Amino acid sequence: MSDSNASVPKPSSSVKLVLLGEAAVGKSSLVLRFVNNDFQENKEPTIGAAFLTQKCQLPTRTIKFEIWDTAGQERFASLAPMYYRNAQSALVVYDLTKPSSLTKAKHWVAELQRQASPGIVIALVGNKLDLCTATGEHDAAEAENSETATEEPQEGDARKITTKEAKDYAEEEGLLFFETSAKDGTGVQEVFNAIANAIPETQLKGSRPAGATGQAGQTRDEGRVNLNANAGAGGPKDGCAC
Amino acid sequence: MASKATLNSEQAIKSETSSKNSGPPHISLSKEDSEDVGDDLLREDWKPELPPRRSTLELMNVSQKSPTSSLRIGITTTRPKLQSTATTALSLADADGQLHSDELQRNSATSLRSSPSHKSLRSHTPIYRSRSGTISEIDDTTSILSYHHLPGGSDAESILGDLLTTDQRSPQWLFSHGDRHVKQDEMPFDNNEPTADFNREFDEIPDLVEDGSNEAELLQQWESKRKHFLILSAAGKPIFNRHGSDNLISGYIGITQTIFSFFESSNDQLKSFSAGKSRFVALTRGPLYLVAISKLGESDSQLRVQLDSLYMQILSTLTLPTLENLFSKRPSTDLRRPLQGTESLLAALADSFTRGSPSTLLSALECLKLRKRDREAINNAMLQVKCKDLLYGLIVAGGRLVSVIRPRSHSLHPGDLQLIFNMLFEAGSVKASEGESWIPMCLPGFNKNGYLYMYVRFLDILKEKESEEVHKSTDTTEDRIAILLISANREGFYELQKMATEVIRYLEKIDKLSTIKSAIIQGRPTTTDIVPGTVLQHFLYKSRGNLQYVMPSYEPSFITLLGRRRLLSVYHALHAGVHAKTGHLKVYHCISREHVALAWITPMFELYCIADGSVERNALAQAANKVIEYIRSQEERVFIIGGVVSHGPSTLTLDE
């Protein structure tokens, strides 16, 4: 789609993005999937932080993500401000199979809301969807039907955090919300597309804060897309061809 | 491994001489090797007296004299032709194997007659019930310690196997065969059985199943590992172990801690002990106990260096004040948590020791061989675009230094660089990352108390070559070029990133990236590239002033994991022998079934070299001289002399 208007160079802008979250939730794997469309089993922990770039083509502009993939270990936490300072977007990642990781994610969200630039677009991402046998829609549907039923994970399912739980929290805080699998690729592209779209053009040059409610609305939509497209085949709706 | 047999597979010949005059340290084991090699370079202080020979004898456990042995190794005799009585002898009168200082043409010559062929020994050596050797009156000029491995060890582990024994009485326990006596005739000469065994050394031990039914099997696997490292806190909490889960070896950890605290409670410090074939070496560092358990035959001090390096890795993660704080606040701290994510660094370091690391053995670094002019141009490129916060700037290719710039007041510590290289080239985390990295790191040799920040960028200029490279050299996996820029400013990333980009652009402009690239592709030369027709299979040359070493390719003789380990075991043995505190040796010569080897120490350099077992002693000495000659002629290519001094940041405050 982006090729259609290739004759006219699209305006290009850089977006600084930081990934935060507990150790071993899959931050680097998400980035590796996004940047190289690749996955490594048993990836060794990131040391310090890695800096990567990747372009994302939108219909009207090109977004160049400058990605800070930070180490999740506690001892690196004090360095985080250096990475999220001036960041226009943040990906706060948790592990769907590990409740403590959502708690940690909430801490990061709170810290970002307190300390980062006011307009920062935050996406909450539950990773390792491939370990969850229940399909997202089933889970989500269940979650909507009965509040309690989904509290108990289904047999053979490693999922410990229901879609509803995380999604409710994300809506409350005005975050984009996704469930992804860096391993099979489900939802990864969508996360970055959504972030690229959520950053208002004005913000790319100026500093007008993004409308929080608008993002939240989008969150729901994107989340739905993601959940339905469990096989990872769902094409990007927004025309991002990166 | 058969424990009863008639023959000790080793005998030691040792001649030690003291020289009253200063003689040039040209090594010459026979009269014919008298070309002069770098006397000025090699001149050293000759000790007027050497320690009493007697004590050294005891040290080597050369308890039984065999005066009948008078086999010669010399100009006219090759060992396979030697007489069959298996003995060793040194005699003053004999001039065949002569040590002399060529320049002064000292009349007093030491002659060495040594070591019958292994063939003859194999069939005629029942008299060697234990270590045997003969020492005769020897004159001065230099000292030689020579020992001979007779075929020994029913397991036929060759060099590796020969060293896998302990003798607690002797610092050179690795040479001593203790109670292992083997029937020579039954021993196959070349048995590669342990090959597979060593290849399994790095296999992970699976987890314990819940009912514990596989425990015995797993413990057996655990015990079969040739090398272990344990790190625990003074309170007994496990911090790191290379093999097996905590559950599996909790018993061993408990025992280790008990032994430690027993000694601690009597205000004593446990240093080392042997149990069976394993050597246990312990190191206490503040609140940490570090233990190495090795069947590979390193000396205590070599193992201690390895443990110290692991400790430095921990410091480089935490800094000393943090480590001390953690334990002073709560002695029962579980250090695994703060160290989380660095297990792979510790494991990679431990494995490099198990495989054998010349760099750690020699406490020195290796450089990429470049023309002086090229290196100057590269250095210059870094200086041209240097940013003000830069502390150290390095270009590294696969663990070999290409260029270093440093502030006037600080040099780089080999230990620190080893930690960095381990992180970048051995452990996968940074290497795998496609982008740039910003890594807070304490360099303990530089300053134990705070962090520096390291910018790392790998260059992919070799990518297109990779597939063909794989066949060429075993080293290729680590042959990537990295630019490392180190600063004390935690916010310095963008500044250093800019500098790196400029360095790369500059290097491209002056076409030096391709120079580096071709130097990498060329790889290390083989020994025969270096000295055409040499008998040497491999050598290590350490420049003591530069703390750097040179070595040829492992090809063609030492390409396998085991082959390389055996080579490194020989080097460890040589290194231990020549550095034994009581020795004061300058030259150390050792012979095994497969190899003859030589260590040669002067104030300027250390040379360790190895040749096939059939090579004559004088040929070996001659070859060693040729290497020295080569290094001298190439000195400015193979070493970075001094590094480029830059004006570093005027003040340096480290983050704690």
3D architecture notes:
The complex is a heterodimer of chains A (242) and B (656). Chain A contains 8 helices and 6 strands; from the N terminus they run E-H-E-E-H-E-H-E-H-H-E-H-H-H. By secondary structure, chain A is α/β, with parallel strands linked by helices. Chain A has a single domain, classed as 3-Layer(aba) Sandwich (Rossmann fold), CATH 3.40.50. In chain A, strand 4 (89-95), helix 3 and strand 5 (121-127) form a beta-alpha-beta unit. In chain A, 46% of the residues are buried. Chain B is α+β, with helices and mostly antiparallel strands and 656 residues long. In chain B, strands 1, 4, 10, 11, 12, 13, 14, 15, 16, 17, 18, 19, 20 and 21 form a 14-stranded mixed sheet that branches. A 5-stranded antiparallel sheet of chain B has the order 6-5-9-8-7. In chain B, helix 10 packs across helix 13 (414-426). Residues 1-24, 30-195 and 465-477 of chain B have low confidence and may be disordered.
Quaternary organization: heterodimer
Helical proportion of chain A, percent range: 25-40%
- Figure out the total of helices of chain B: 20
Identify the biggest protein-protein contact and residues per side. Answer: A-B, 27 and 29 residues
Order of helices and strands of chain A: EHEEHEHEHHEHHH
For the secondary structure, the number of strands of chain A is: 6
The whole-number mean of residue pLDDT values of chain B reads 73
Structural class estimated from helices and strands of chain B:
alpha+beta
The tally of beta strands of chain B, per DSSP, is: 21
- Largest beta-sheet details of chain B: 14 strands, mixed
| Shape assignment of chain A | globular
Largest sheet of chain A: 6 strands, mixed
Strand order of the largest sheet of chain A: 2-3-1-4-5-6
Rg for CA atoms of chain B: 26 Å
Percent of residues in helices of chain B:
25-40%
Shape of chain B: globular
Task: Report the CATH C-level class of chain A.
Answer: Alpha Beta
**SS-derived structural category of chain A:** alpha/beta
